[in-house]
């Protein structure tokens, strides 16, 4: 079959990615009576990352209850199907034939789908060892948290003694997964001066599993021929030390799954590296929206699902023929801030969902003062009530946006 033999169909809304964000937007749109809402996922089963996370902690913000990852995924799948959305799995979106026309490949072969609205909900992934440029040999026993969870799900051996690189929320999930699989955790290692999760989670892990936390250290080298034998650490003062282990898990260090957005020529935000979007989840490409962790690598699953819910309104307005006028002003952060989402704004437009922007920092900032300015003019200045920690969200209220000049330069956010 040549590309021209593709079956070509049209739908009202094509959602790419059946994780919490994609399923939530599809459920809302189908429930609102949109004709054909089709959701694609390259995995054999819908549900996104929570499907592999056999621990509790999902759903508080969107469903007002706490469930395991698989139960949470099942809930969102059932809601989308019940509302009338069509879910298709084992189907990968591979590129664009034209704006809002997506080429896909799946069990029935090649297809081309044109949609009135396309919603990108492709999520984010942890950067693997190769992308982190860690020197040393290339033995077995090297994972990201996602790979570890998949291996455990498929009853593969994940070693007996592990080192976890990272000390953020997902790193603690990796500890729990390893312990359930019967492996000892020799240490958690972070380049930060302290952990970056909820203090109770850190304390619980320490007391329950006796896992030491090594701070201000990076991985200098992996050693081992066939299987990993040790991880050599470099401390901030230059000292190095080796820890014997047969498994290492690289956690966090997220990158959005932005390849599809990039191949459409959609502008990416330099901070998040996901599509630049405004408060209505609109990208720079007419009719193409983006939601979930593709926009903010990474928030929890319930935040991704809430994105999906909020995005349904703007998608409905687009389907009703409201002109495509995405926020003209870029919003940029300066170091040590890492990113802000959303990162485009319309001064007389709506505020972001829940009336606030979400940010990340690269280092701990004790009750920083956040300043918002445009062309040297201060639009907002306010002290954060708590410490801003790397790998954890903090928020900036959005009540200043009406003061920005739609024809001015970028809006800048600094932290002192
Ligand atoms: C190991 C781990 C543990 C976590 N633990 C928790 C936790 O305890 N609690 C919590 O709230 N959150 C947790 N999270 C975060 C949570 O899972 C994510 O925030 C959530 O899944 C994001 O939803 P999403 O819909 O944006 O993306 P995802 O869930 O990542 O879904 C994206 C989907 O898009 C599909 N896709 C991507 N590209 C294509 C393509 N080209 N064609 C077709 N399909 C495509 C993927 O297959 C995937 O199914 C964890 C994350 C990880 C990695």
TrEMBL record:
Is Oxidoreductase there in the keyword field?
yes
Entry keywords, A to Z? Oxidoreductase
Q: Where is the FAD/NAD(P)-binding domain?
A: 12-306
Q: What GO MF annotations does this protein's record show?
A: oxidoreductase activity
Q: Does the keyword Amino-acid biosynthesis apply?
A: no
Query: Know the name of this protein?
Result: Oxidoreductase
Species assigned in the record: Streptomyces violaceusniger
Give the classification, highest ranks: Bacteria, Bacillati, Actinomycetota, Actinomycetes, Kitasatosporales
């Amino acid at each position: 079959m040549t590309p021209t033999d593709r079956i070509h169909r049209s739908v009202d809304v094509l959602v790419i990615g059946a994780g919490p964000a994609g399923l939530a937007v599809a459920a809302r749109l189908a429930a609102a009576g949109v004709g054909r809402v089709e959701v694609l996922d390259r995995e054999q089963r819908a549900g996104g990352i929570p499907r592999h996370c056999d621990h509790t902690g999902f759903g508080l913000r969107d469903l007002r209850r706490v469930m395991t990852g698989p139960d949470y995924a099942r809930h969102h799948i059932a809601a989308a199907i019940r509302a009338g959305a069509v879910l298709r799995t084992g189907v990968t979106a591979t590129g664009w034939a034209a704006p809002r026309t997506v080429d896909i490949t799946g069990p029935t072969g090649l297809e081309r789908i044109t949609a009135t609205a396309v919603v990108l909900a492709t999520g984010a992934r942890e950067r693997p060892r190769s992308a982190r440029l860690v020197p040393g040999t290339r033995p077995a026993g090297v994972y990201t948290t996602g790979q570890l969870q998949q291996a455990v799900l498929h009853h593969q051996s994940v070693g007996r003694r592990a080192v976890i690189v990272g000390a953020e929320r997902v790193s603690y999930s990796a500890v729990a997964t390893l312990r359930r699989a019967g492996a000892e955790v020799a240490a958690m290692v972070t380049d930060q001066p302290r952990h970056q999760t909820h203090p109770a989670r850190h304390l619980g892990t320490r007391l329950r599993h006796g896992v030491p936390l090594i701070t201000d250290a990076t991985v200098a080298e992996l050693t081992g021929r066939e299987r990993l034998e040790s991880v050599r650490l470099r401390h901030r003062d230059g000292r190095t030390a080796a820890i014997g282990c047969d498994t290492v898990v690289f956690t966090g260090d997220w990158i959005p799954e932005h390849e599809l957005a990039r191949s459409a020529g959609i502008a990416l935000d330099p901070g998040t590296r996901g599509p630049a979007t405004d408060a209505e989840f609109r990208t720079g490409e007419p009719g193409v929206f983006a939601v979930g962790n593709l926009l903010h690598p990474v928030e929890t699953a319930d935040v991704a699902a809430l994105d999906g819910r909020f995005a349904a309104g703007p998608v409905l307005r687009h389907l009703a023929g409201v002109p495509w006028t995405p926020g003209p002003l870029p919003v940029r952060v300066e170091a040590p801030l890492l990113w802000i989402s959303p990162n485009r704004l319309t001064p007389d437009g709506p505020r972001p969902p829940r009336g606030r922007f979400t940010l990340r920092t690269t280092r701990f900032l004790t009750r920083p003062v956040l300043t918002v300015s445009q062309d040297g003019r201060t639009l907002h200045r306010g002290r954060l009530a708590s410490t801003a920690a790397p790998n954890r969200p903090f928020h900036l209220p959005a009540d200043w946006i009406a003061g920005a000049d739609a024809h001015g330069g970028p809006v800048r956010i600094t932290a002192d």
